[in-house]
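User: Let's play a game. I give you a shape written as tokens, and you guess the letters that built it. Ready? Here's round one.
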């Protein structure tokens, strides 16, 4: 099934336009992602369990997969950890420390000049939704390298 563009009206209309129905679990997963700003499937599941302990992690994973297919959420990988899901309009980047794993939020607009250059010079459309910049945080950069 082709991926539709999410409608401004929200989840129910986007699901129906794609032949799916709105379930309470799908709504809870989307609500949890929006409330957290971003989170791993486990963090999203924990948020849902605060009000609905009967929703299992498999349901959360399936809902996230569908919501991503519909363009309502996206995910990013930071190193070897679990993916972090966020609303598709969450315009931020992240820096990830190689040594301690600290993740910091960076405004997405900082990559606009790079995205423009890629588009103008190469015809390449940058997908910032999966970008994480790797390096060393301030603390780790100040410490001597491990032996």
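Assistant: Ready! My guess for every position:
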């Amino acid at each position: 099934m082709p991926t539709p563009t999410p409608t401004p009206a929200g989840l129910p209309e986007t699901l129906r336009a794609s032949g799916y129905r709105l379930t309470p679990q799908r709504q809870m997963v989307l609500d949890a992602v929006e409330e957290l700003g971003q989170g791993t499937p486990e963090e999203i599941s924990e948020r849902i369990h605060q009000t609905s302990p009967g929703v299992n992690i498999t349901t959360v994973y399936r809902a996230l997969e569908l919501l991503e297919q519909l363009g309502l959420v996206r995910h990013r990988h930071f190193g070897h950890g679990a993916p972090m899901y966020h609303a598709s309009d969450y315009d931020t980047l992240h820096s990830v420390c190689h040594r301690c794993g600290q993740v910091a939020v960076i405004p997405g607009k900082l990559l606009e000049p790079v995205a423009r250059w890629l588009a103008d010079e190469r015809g390449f459309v940058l997908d910032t939704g999966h970008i994480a910049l790797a390096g060393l945080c301030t603390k780790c950069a100040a410490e001597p390298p491990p032996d």
